[in-house]
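Tokens for FAS1 domain-containing protein. Go.
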Amino acid sequence: MASSSRALSLLAFTLLLLAVLSTVSGHNITQILSESPEYSSFNSYLSQTKLADEINSRTTITLLVLNNGAMSSLAGKHPLSVVKNALSLLVLLDYYDPVKLHKISQGTTLTTTLYQTTGNAPGNLGFVNITDLKGGKVGFGSAAPGSKLASTYTKLVKQIPYNISVLEIDAPIIAPGILTAPAPSADGLNNITGLLEKAGCKTFANLLVTSGVLKTYVSTVEKGLTVFAPSDEAFKAEGVPDLTKLTQAEVVSLLEYHALAEYKPKGSLKTNKEAISTLATNGAGKYDLTTSTSGDEVILHTGIGPSRLADTVGDETPVVIFTVDQVLLPTELFGKSPAPAPAPEPVSGPTPSPAKSPSPAEAPSPVAASPPAPPVDDSPEGAPSDSPTSSEDSNAKNAAFHVSASAYVTTVLVTLAATSLLL
Ligand SMILES: *[C@@H]1O[C@H](CO)[C@@H](O)[C@H](O)[C@H]1NC(C)=O
Ligand SMILES: *[C@@H]1O[C@H](CO)[C@@H](O)[C@H](O)[C@H]1NC(C)=O
Ligand SMILES: *[C@@H]1O[C@H](CO)[C@@H](O)[C@H](O)[C@H]1NC(C)=O
Ligand SMILES: *[C@@H]1O[C@H](CO)[C@@H](O)[C@H](O)[C@H]1NC(C)=O
């Protein structure tokens, strides 16, 4: 009995390890481009926008690069969020080496880019037209009707078949409106609470306002902000402690635990291998999170239970807001009984680490207050099995609001500053 469950745990652990390894693509675009100083500006923007992480987490892609001269029409002339969109259009989600470029059937094709996957691209603005022109030239342009093929292939920079091909082109590909897109206010994403409510996270939004923690979020926006917003279903899930029993200080810590003072879009979470500090972190290893991946999914681990990244509600450098399907319960608060003890600090248990122990009991003493013990956090598959109904509900819900939420990001125009003034 015991040995067979141990074998199962080991199997789960091995599968987790394989899942983690299989997402490591092996290329490092920052490294590749650093070999050629003429791409230093482009390379620097890939890092600033975190597109480098997104590129490193993918295979079968083509990156169209611009040398410093060609990059000068973008660099420093637009907000980072606009540059990110323009550069996302240069990440083709297919592998084109020079041979394939010249062998396009019918001489012309449309290809999907990373921009199309962001939800920021209306219609087919996230597609690029590649056309084999007369005289061996290959032209690139936006797929939007009436666009010119204003960029030309100049040379091969690097190819790692069939993972990544890096090709130089002589000018940026400009989709209509991409440079004049309503630049987000200096504060990044506007009206965080409005976005959260629209995305089905009303409970969380209300808590942020009533506790005052929204101000803490807003204060870090300039440096970067990543929010993990639990859905309303997540707050109703079994095993979530009664929040009215927490002290004010504990509620603040819990809410601060759901955000990072840095910009970490999904690609960066996928390639992350370290423990991540949250806004609640008040010492080394305290209130931190670890991540794992399963296919294209990112799972956050608190040490008590896993929570799946559901949707990206908004991503405008340097602010990104995700929904998650479980409330993130830090061991510092819930590793012991969540009775309103004034001192939330001493927890002498093992610090959560990315590679989870195969032992089924992770935390020294899981939440004692609520009868349905919280899930064992040792496998990405843990989330669906521990509360089937709630997570199914939230998946369906998430799928439903996904489209409207991304459209909403582009339309909301009330500033964060206004939000904080109202508080
Ligand atoms: C290509 O990507 C795969 C993962 O999909 C990786 O295992 C392999 O090492 C990569 N190849 C090279 C040459 O980097
Ligand atoms: C990629 O290469 C850069 C520059 O060599 C290095 O600073 C960075 O840590 C590398 N990233 C990864 C994920 O290995
Ligand atoms: C690409 O653009 C060229 C020039 O505008 C156009 O003739 C061609 O039909 C386009 N290709 C596709 C696949 O739409
Ligand atoms: C934020 O958006 C919500 C929902 O759309 C709206 O009710 C609220 O008034 C907005 N906030 C501000 C400060 O206008």
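The chain has 18 helices and 14 strands.
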